[in-house]
Specification:
Blueprint lengths: L1 H19 L10 H12 L5 E3 L3 H6 L6 E4 L1 E4 L6 E8 L2 H25 L1 H9 L2 E4 L2 E6 L3 H12 L2
Antiparallel strand pairs: 1-3, 2-4, 3-4, 4-6, 5-6
Helix pairs in contact: 2-6, 4-5
């Protein structure tokens, strides 16, 4: 009887341990909603909305790697506002997208370093963020307020 009780307790502990190892489930986020909230905060004059098919030519992101995207750029001012929000189809695709967006951020930093110290300082604050299969580049002088909007959607 004692062995049976010990076996039952060990089985329950094992089952609980396996459940805990399952990992955190990814939050489902509609990136169009995120983009809309960011546009409300930033309120640019004429944002150029980018669809998934435009990401290949501009950033090297393959459409086959993208589950959803909602991005925009603005052409006002000396610093480029590029808000690239992508959900990848899987983790490998997310890695490829992250790499492409890091390359773009690096390119902007190199250009701004020799062009304008203020733009370079702004570019240094920008990062590529990964939340599971979601990848974002928020390249903007308003990076902090836009990042706060983005982060709200992933806080849940």
């Amino acid at each position: 009887m004692k062995q049976r009780t010990i076996a039952l307790i060990l089985s329950l502990l094992l089952a609980l341990g396996l459940t805990a190892c399952g990992g955190k489930e990814e939050v489902a986020v509609d990136l169009t909603d995120v983009r809309g909230a960011m546009l409300e905060v930033q309120a640019p004059d004429e944002p150029w909305l980018l669809e998934t098919d435009a990401l290949k030519n501009l950033y090297g992101i393959e459409a086959d790697d993208v589950q959803q995207s909602a991005s925009y750029v603005t052409m006002s001012g000396t610093f480029p506002d590029e808000i690239i929000l992508v959900q990848a189809v899987d983790e490998k695709a997310a890695e490829r997208i992250q790499s492409a967006l890091k390359a773009r951020l690096s390119e902007v930093m190199v250009q701004s370093q020799s062009y304008d110290p203020d733009n370079y300082a702004a570019a240094q604050k920008c990062t590529v963020t990964v939340n599971g299969t979601y990848v974002a580049l928020i390249l903007s002088p308003e990076q902090e307020s836009l990042r706060a909007v983005y982060d709200e959607y992933f806080a849940g």
